[in-house]
Request: fold
Amino acid sequence: MAYSEKVLEHFKHPKNVGTLDKASKTVGTGLVGAPECGDVMRLQIEVDENTNMIKDAKFKTFGCGSAIASSSLATEWLKGKTIDEAMAIDNMDIVEELALPPVKIHCSVLAEDAIKSAIKDYQEKNGIEVTVTETSH
Amino acid sequence: MKKLIYLDNNSTTPTDPRVVETMIPYFYEKHGNAASRSHKYGWEAEEAVDYAREQVAQLIGADPKEIIFTSGATEADNLAIKGVFEMYARKGNHIITVTTEHKAVLDTCKKIEKLGGEVTYLEVNDKGLIDLDELRAAIKKNTILVSIMWANNETGVIQPVKEIGKICEENGVLFFSDATQAVGKIPVDVIENGIHLMAFTGHKMYGPKGVGALYVRRKKPRVKVTAQLDGGGHERGMRSGTLNVPAIAGFGKAAELCRLEMEQDAKRLSVLRDHLEAEFNKLEEVYVNGTTEARMPHVANISFKHVEGEGLMMTFNQNVAVSSGSACTSASLEPSYVLKALGLGDDLAHSSIRFSLGRFTTKEEVDQAIELVSNGVQHMRDLSPIWEMYKEGIDLDAVEWSEH
Reply:
């Protein structure tokens, strides 16, 4: 199967690979997927408490090229967004941006789940009312 | 541009130039139909087919009359299983096969079940081998056929064919083997191994695609199959259809070349394969799948733990062509059923790559592949959260994953 140029670019030169201190109060961590399913994404956000702005985002992903590209793109999009704006990222935006074929849509769903899971973790840690509604994939 | 290194010979082998040379005249000046009896064009074509039949028969220790040319191994598998099921309906309707067979056998067996037949699927152990006692125990009064592959396409594991042949003979049951991956690569003798029917194909042994054969034994016992294609009664009535003369001529030449060169090819390739495995074993958490005791000389199926196979392939697929046991491309996300049958967890099955070398693989290519793949594993592990967790000493089995 041929991958789109954008997927290839993110795959070869993934953005924001790394690890933030998950114990820090300003960091939210989302770990989604399972090794048995062939994809695991860990997405982390670091939030500026005063502005509610995501100032950094990092990921590590076990998965195919599309899964890696989806999470790389997600971290790019997250930086500079407020929590509310980040909540609005939809998996179909990722599908469109990366031109993912139908068999790879689950990769974008996973990325959306990872974003929401990281936000939820941040909110719970800081005693903020959790705004994430359970995704039903 | 650098040449793409081809280490996917179990999918198909490149056609040997000597085979192509043999085929060419049968497209041009010798274009006749082998069934035309009234002119020289027909005689030449028939002669070519007869000669190829001898070459193919000789490779497997058979009589030329026992070779039925088909379009490939899938058709031969279908003809063997469905043909026996129909022909021996009065004797019984039970077939025994194995969970790690090729889809051409498994799906044909499923069809047999739909048609009212009964099929037993034997399991394999963690080495990929069947248990002979389980086979003995599975044979019943109404068993007509045992269908067990010679060598597995994904792992290269070789089943104890000779012992299976003995068990079948003792119990008066026919033994069919899909030997697609074995013929032309290792010695395969139908008499020595008690084979009654055997499927194989040209394009896995440096011959052309679109031609294969079913061996059907003619003596002790005389085996018959019901034709699955009706028509002109070609191939002793078992497979109608105008013979693909150029492909058959090429198949014959390929068989002859394999007979003469397989020993040296196998020796050379097993050295290269062992080198490849030894180098990969220097990386951490690398596992060879399937037994290393009874295995094809050119195949290595390796799991690089905590790295997803398809993603890994993407790091080097501009330079190295291989296959993955991961099936991330399919909607089901199911990894290789063959590796799962060996008891591999889904995680290790998703992490597997099959390397299959061939006659035209060089030492330089293997060395380059080792370097490219090792770099890819490193790249993917740097990206992998599971690798990081493993390195931190986290018990991955204890983690509550969110299945999706």
